[in-house]
Each structure stands twice: as C-alpha cells, then as structure tokens.
Automatic annotation (TrEMBL):
Pfam families: Fer2 (PF00111), Fer2_2 (PF01799). Residues 2-78 form the 2Fe-2S ferredoxin-type domain. It comes from the Bacteria. This is (2Fe-2S)-binding protein. InterPro entries: 2Fe-2S-bd, 2Fe-2S-bd_dom_sf, 2Fe-2S_ferredoxin-like_sf, 2Fe-2S_ferredoxin-type, 2Fe2S_fd_BS, Beta-grasp_dom_sf, Diverse_Oxidoreductases. One of its GO terms (molecular function) is metal ion binding. Keywords: 2Fe-2S, Iron, Iron-sulfur, Metal-binding, Oxidoreductase. The keyword Zinc does not apply. PROSITE patterns: 2FE2S_FER_1 (PS00197), 2FE2S_FER_2 (PS51085). The keyword DNA-binding does not apply. CDD domains: fer2 (cd00207).
Length: 172
C-alpha cells in the first residue's frame, strides 16, 4: 500500500492503495463515482474514459500511481453544478443514448475534443471518437450532437450574428 494525493472533480483526495491499482477501481470502488463504466478492461472500448489534466485517458488501464498530484475529471464533474455541459444539453436534444452504457465515456472524449479544438472538422470528430465503442450504434447521433454543440458555440460568440439579431442604435 502507498499513499497518493489526487484531485477528483475539484476535490483533493488522499488514498492508501497499491500503486498499480487501475484508476477506474479507485473511482468506482473507493470513491463510489459510478458514472465511469467498466467495459473491456483493456483500454479498447472507451467506456472508462476520464480526463487527466484535461486529456482523455482510459482509466481501466491507468495505474493510480501515474495520477499522483494530478487532476482527474469524471462524468460527475463535467457539469457545473446544475448547469449541464453544452454537450450534455445536445445529448438530450438529440436523444443520443440507447442503453447508455458507453455514454459517459463518449461524453468525456467529446468534451476533451471541443476543449482543445472548438471547431473540429467532421473528420477530426470521427478521429477523436474512434476509440469509443457503442454496441447500440449511436454513432450518427453522437456526431450530430458534437457538430451541433460546436456550431452553436460559434453562433453565440460570432459578432456578425450578434449584430444581425441586435442592431446597434444610430449614434447622435
Ligand atoms: S473499460 Fe477501459 S477501455 Fe474498455
Ligand atoms: S448506448 Fe448502448 S453501448 Fe452505447
């Protein structure tokens, strides 16, 4: 057993655990954060995806000792309190999930993509999401929800759009 300090969803956590323990076990069994799923256990399906310092990782094959002193974000930390992440709103709007099992991993991969590349091409979306498997085949709706989120963000901050909807008053 060794001692580790990590930050999970903004909260400091002290752990006493074997350093080779996968981060996923720590999240689910010690911290009871059950939104992150166990799928293949081999880094192949993406169901266990969380963020490590903002980048997506497969927590099933990531030893806790490699997370020492670092920031972990899980699906429980993606929203800001009751304010959904824009992707979560799009997920609802596009009715993305079927069984839902893969969806927290899908959302974490998509959130990392948009944080690093707010206007991804369709090809970049496909590449970023290619490691997340969905046995229910929700891929078209996942892509549509990511595209919608990215396009919406541009409209919100595009000054041309703002000017069209709110014409400036004439200066005297
Ligand atoms: S459970 Fe981690 S990649 Fe499948
Ligand atoms: S929604 Fe069922 S596995 Fe993706």
């Amino acid at each position: 057993m060794s001692q580790f300090s990590i930050t999970v969803n903004g909260e400091a956590v002290e752990l006493s655990v074997d350093g080779n323990t996968p981060l996923l076990w720590v999240l689910r069994e010690q911290l009871r954060l059950l939104g992150t799923k166990f799928g293949c256990g081999m880094g192949l399906c993406g169901a266990c995806t969380v963020h490590l310092d903002g980048s997506p990782i497969r927590s099933c094959s990531f030893p806790i000792q490699a997370a020492q002193g670092r920031q972990i974000t899980t699906i429980e930390g993606l929203s800001d309190g009751d304010d959904l992440h824009p992707l979560q709103s799009s997920w609802l709007e596009f009715n993305v999930p079927q069984c839902g099992y893969c969806q927290s991993g899908q959302l974490m991969s998509a959130a990392a993509l948009l944080a690093n590349n707010p206007q991804p091409s369709d090809q970049e979306i496909d590449e970023a999401m290619s490691g997340n498997i969905c046995r229910c085949g929700t891929y078209p709706r996942i892509r549509a929800a990511i595209r919608h989120t990215a396009d919406n963000a541009v409209q919100q901050f595009d000054p041309k759009q703002t000017n069209e909807s709110e014409p400036m008053e004439a200066q005297s």
